[in-house]
Amino acid sequence: MRPVLIRPADPRSLDEVGDGLRAAFVTVRDAVAEGRPVVILVRAGDLLGHHSVYGAAYANGLAGIARAAGFEGARAGWQVNVVALPDEDAGDEEAIITAVRDLGLTGQVLTLGAGLAGKVIP
Amino acid sequence: MTRIAVVTGGARGLGLAIARLLADRGHALVLVDRDDAVRDTAEQLRTASAVVADLTADEDVRRVRDFVRETHGSVDVLVNNAGITRDARLATMAEADFTAVVEVNLLAAMRLTFALEAELRDGSSVVNMSSRAALGNFGQANYVASKSGLIGFTRGLALRWSPRVRVNAVAPGLIDSPMSRAMPPRVLDGLVARIPAGRIGEPEDVAKAVAFLASDDASYITGQVLTVCGGRSIAP
Ligand SMILES: NC(=O)c1ccc[n+]([C@@H]2O[C@H](COP(=O)([O-])OP(=O)(O)OC[C@H]3O[C@@H](n4cnc5c(N)ncnc54)[C@H](O)[C@@H]3O)[C@@H](O)[C@H]2O)c1
């Protein structure tokens, strides 16, 4: 089954952070109810706050949703993961999304590229 | 010079323990809480004043800022501690319960911090109350998202406001509180058995971590999360 994709827009205000997290929560809740995997794409730099404060709160909030779903639904086979894309070209996104689904992971934050090497594991 | 600390959610629980310790260490306090019991708390501490405010409301946040400006002029320590839970399994969690928790635990902390930017003195410290649960927890998608988002805010703001203001987070694990005391004893014992330290945390354990990050002893620390969970976050 093709994963449901969440690709957040860059938030520019507190309201956009709140609205974005709420929308992602509803998408994840409804997707797992239908047995569909979810892949959330964020910018790796956002996890450590490199781009903006709002982007950092949002990306980490999304990671929280994935971790909560992973914690709660691992036995039930829910698959909700975050892929943190490098700020430069991430390559073939479709292939990444399919690979994440096929690996059977859940509740993970997968950081691609070397941009966060040597830094805190988000 | 007396250091000024603003502590949100200061009426009770961890906020009260933090306020007590900071008062013991010579801070003058502004306790902010939507519960007007915060007035009694402030009276007990003597060096504290209280502002009854709902931090999800813009006008209340402005009132807190105006009070701080008029009473003290500046701030040395801001502890964003106010928080709520609305637990439910993901499948049955209402959108309103997700939003309410994110509003208080994440957005209100961000709103107040931004509002106090001009009041935060050079060399001041912001401490955000996250949770070990930011790493994942059962029936807490809203709470986990909010506390994980707060860690993102901590990192992003630390980079933006360095070197003028340090911004860190404390992530408590299981702490003795009304919430933990409400659990059936068998459930609580089971949770404690998984804590390498072999005991539940005390509010003072958290307060000491906050006071450390708030102090000049932590002057080379910013953008970090100090997890106070008796080792639970690394245990199997
Ligand atoms: N107690 C624990 O085991 C534990 C563990 C990890 C993290 N935490 C976090 O520590 C913080 C304090 O927890 P606690 O156990 O002392 O909780 P508590 O419920 O005893 O106290 C929270 C305080 O925040 C206030 N508050 C809530 N919403 C508010 C709002 N909109 N505006 C102003 N004040 C508001 C409440 O009135 C209350 O006085 C919370 O952020 C919580 O998420 C607690």
Automatic annotation (TrEMBL), chain B:
A GO molecular function held by the record: oxidoreductase activity, acting on the CH-OH group of donors, NAD or NADP as acceptor
Matches recorded under SMART domains: PKS_KR
InterPro entries assigned to the protein according to its UniProt record, in alphabetical order: KR_dom, NAD(P)-bd_dom_sf, Sc_DH/Rdtase_CS, SDR_fam
Pfam families per UniProt: adh_short_C2 (PF13561)
UniProt cross-references to SUPFAM superfamilies, sorted A to Z: NAD(P)-binding Rossmann-fold domains
Domain Ketoreductase: 3-181
Claim: rRNA processing is one of the keywords in the record: no
Keywords from the named record: Oxidoreductase
PANTHER family: 3-OXOACYL-[ACYL-CARRIER-PROTEIN] REDUCTASE [NADH], SHORT-CHAIN DEHYDROGENASES/REDUCTASES FAMILY MEMBER
Family named by the database record: Belongs to the short-chain dehydrogenases/reductases (SDR) family.
Name recorded for this polypeptide: Beta-ketoacyl-ACP reductase
Species in which this protein is naturally found: Acrocarpospora macrocephala
